Amino acid sequence: MSGTSISETPALTPQFCFNEKLLRDFLRLSRSTIDDSITQNLNALITPAQEGFDPSSTAVRQTDSRGQKVIHPEACQGFKENVLFSSWQTRSDVLNYCAGVATSPDPDDPDLILRENESARDRERVVDERLDPYSGRFFPKEPRTESLANLVRNQRMVEEIIRARTWGLVSERCGAGSSWEDALNSWRHKHQR
């Protein structure tokens, strides 16, 4: 992942997806750069020097969010289109690709032979549940495609939560009226992704 910026899609290969640590790290880093620091990102869009310094602003401590300055609409739109939506789309692309990998046959599964051997041994076992009620239990190792499918499903739920939270803050500060899904779909349509 070195040399890849946050908004760039990493090289999408089955190896990338099956390396669950690398996949999680990419998603975590992308989220922390954009979504987890959304307040700082939005504050950075404000240019206080435009209005000049108001000495009365220091007379009263600003403790509520209503005191926050409105961000210029062009700055908001540029941030949403060039940073936020492209980051979300990159993560969607990665999750969609890895979901496809998870539902495809995996001829290179390194644990396939191990699972087949475990299954064969299980079929040969003689089980007397009267002597040992737990002897009938058999928990084969999960195929890596199944593990990847679970990871992708969980990460998609995390994306839903994070995007809703981020969009709430963006809407509050930028005045966006639509849902994040509608806004992202509109952006996708404009950019033909």
TrEMBL record:
It comes from the Eukaryota. Pfam families: MIX23. Coiled coil: none annotated. One of its GO terms (cellular component) is mitochondrial intermembrane space. InterPro entries: MIX23, MIX23_fungal. PANTHER family: COILED-COIL DOMAIN-CONTAINING PROTEIN 58, PROTEIN MIX23. Belongs to the MIX23 family. This is Caffeine-induced death protein Cid2.
